[in-house]
Amino acid sequence: MDSLITAAARALATGDPLGALNRVALRDDAPALALRGIAMAQLGDLARAKSLLKSAARAFGPKEAVARARCVVAEAEIALVSRELTWPAKALDAARATLEAHGDRVNAAHARNLEARRLLLIGRLGEAERMLADPGLVPLPPASRVAHELTVAGIAIRRLRTKAARAALDRAGQAAREANIPALMAEVESTALVMDAPAARLIACGGERPLLLEDVEALLASGVVVVDACRNVVRDEGRVISLATRPVLFALARALGEAWPQDVPRSTLVARAFRGKHADESHRARLRVEIGRLRAELGTLADVTATSRGFKLVPRSAREIVVLAPRVEERHAAVLAFLADGESWSSSALAIALGSSPRTVQRALEQLAAAGKVHAFGRGPARRWTTPPVPGFPTTLLLPGPLPSD
Amino acid sequence: MKQGQAEILREYGPFPNADQVHGVTFDGQHIWFASGDKLNALDPASGKVLRSIDVAAHAGTAFDGEHLFQVAEDRIQKIDPETGRVLATIPAPGGGGDSGLAWAEGALWVGEYRGRKIHQVDPETGAVLRTIETNRVVTGVTWIDDELWHGTWEGDESDLRRIDPETGEVLERLEMPAGTSVSGLEFGGGDLFFCGGGGSGKVRAVRRPR
């Protein structure tokens, strides 16, 4: 490498993108384009960064496979930060293989971490964990360790392993201080805030209170029956009964759970489950059928027994039944949960992350936009959605994904 | 053109606090190598770094018998090896695209990496006296009597080559093992070259063919 490229690369590595740009701003050779691209990305001009990196990848010679692969990794990182989840994961995988084959273990590990972060973002926790399980036996530079530990923490948070999450965040903080890059320290701090902000509400015995992530973990391990409205399941310590695809049954379970140990009048259950105002005979007949189905689903966790005015839940072995509800409840909460990360998302990226159809997400976004809860900018495929950050708006438990016991 | 495989006789490093090796020179006793923000004096017998000078050191390094010369950003610094003081600075001919540096015949010889050129430069003023074109990227540059050698490094392929100083024609080529990059280059006396190993953080002694 030549002198100014070395100097610019050193500036970038110490978190000084302006210093790097100063040195290579007027150069259009391949390494200069790549460095300018990374510097622009660090400064937040992602569109310019992307086009610079594309030009750099083209400008490197046919024998400079490693340099090309590094450009692909940097492009992938920009796509990830821009929430363009449709970018070709295969290209990143191929770049990682090239880097590994040429002994560039640090950048290969970085590529692996990016793949894990993407999997984490789209809720494929198991695959993300496998991706991180083999970081190679290479001592990573501090900045790469921060990214690695943040991903580990992200997985632990989604899996409700708060001790592991805190340990990973501590290691990330330590590495960020070693790297001495303010943006990284800020990222670790903002991730750590999730641990200290209410993550859900507990509704029990007629009252409710906010729960921290650690409280949720403790609750799920405490032996009570939890009607979990964050994931639409009913569970105790060992068993999880998913009602995610049975909204009527879950609505009944939740109404019964909120009232426990009291019973719930038929008319209330009809209103909650069928959105009917009055319980006529046909509603009563349908309610009997649905209660029968719920009883069958809940099986050994709890029984649903009839009372003079309605129904109530009776735990089989647990001493208590509680309801775990999202901190903020509204329609399209899952869409808002993703947008609450403060990034701008395309509707197709949201559809990938939510595992639903683009049309469904589009409809939800249009309704949210009409209510003033999200904003769109850009046109056509470049259109992005964002939401003004709501202080304390939790994302963790609203994110659909595998449960801690998976 | 004579052609052969480079024979690596010894590897030094990687060294603590020096993740890259750029320029390399030899003062008859110590191998000096540039590691970004330092010039380091390496004892070729023990393989230990004896002392370091805190000075910007981004590319080629040379020794004129008294002073060290070091490429930093788009300049060439003249450094007192005893005190570490920068005595003078001249502009580098490649405007920052400079790589290798050598001293010979009272002039500095500066490799321009992607420009595939070697410039002969007046060490007092930085004026370019003449330019030799080559067909490969230039990393380290060194003179052995009347032989001009330079390193190349493109992707996985790296070699040491002797070129005709008049025409740039390649006269001899020593191919480095795959993945062994050459950054700096210096004749180490006798049958030795010293090569900077770039991102490997190593300095290598390579046999000079007779």
Automatic annotation (TrEMBL), chain A:
InterPro entries: WH-like_DNA-bd_sf (IPR036388), WH_DNA-bd_sf (IPR036390)
Keyword vocabulary terms for this entry: Plasmid
UniProt-recorded name of the protein: Helix-turn-helix domain-containing protein
Source organism per UniProt: Nitratireductor thuwali
From TrEMBL, chain B:
Name the UniProt record assigns to this protein: Pyrrolo-quinoline quinone repeat domain-containing protein
Superkingdom in the source lineage: Bacteria
Organism: Nitratireductor thuwali
Pyrrolo-quinoline quinone repeat domain sequence ranges: 73-207
Keywords: Plasmid
Pfam families: PQQ_2
SUPFAM superfamilies documented for this protein: YVTN repeat-like/Quinoprotein amine dehydrogenase (SSF50969)
Keyword check for Amino-acid biosynthesis: no
InterPro entries the record matches: PQQ_rpt_dom, Quino_amine_DH_bsu, WD40/YVTN_repeat-like_dom_sf
